[in-house]
Recover the amino acids of this structure.
């Protein structure tokens, strides 16, 4: 597993945890819905087409999340993204730097 994917896994785990504590008032761990979303997000990261050259999901040309999970993860990002700067500034800075990176191009289909 590439360093980039490991960083993404750690960041998404932290963000879903923040979201669950803030929105679902869990004291420890995650609620079943958030646990399911975390498992889904980790599965999608493991199978990322780009691997170590992975762009941030918002800029990715391949939408690998199902529509329902995509809405859920967007809500998590909207809630936890700004709060991540206070909780883990290093992870937030890395994510910000990755948003500025160029998105890899997909190979064109041959006819």
């Amino acid at each position: 597993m590439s360093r980039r994917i490991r960083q993404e896994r750690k960041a998404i785990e932290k963000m879903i945890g923040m979201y669950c504590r803030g929105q679902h008032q869990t004291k420890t761990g995650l609620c079943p819905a958030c646990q399911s979303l975390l498992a889904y997000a980790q599965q999608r990261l493991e199978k990322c087409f780009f691997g170590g050259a992975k762009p941030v999901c918002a800029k990715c040309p391949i939408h690998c999340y199902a529509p329902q999970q995509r809405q859920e993860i967007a809500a998590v990002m909207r809630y936890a993204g700004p709060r991540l700067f206070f909780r883990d500034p290093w992870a937030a800075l890395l994510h910000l730097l990755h948003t500025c990176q160029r998105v890899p191009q997909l190979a064109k289909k041959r006819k």
Q: What stands out?
A: The two ends are 34 Å apart (CA to CA).
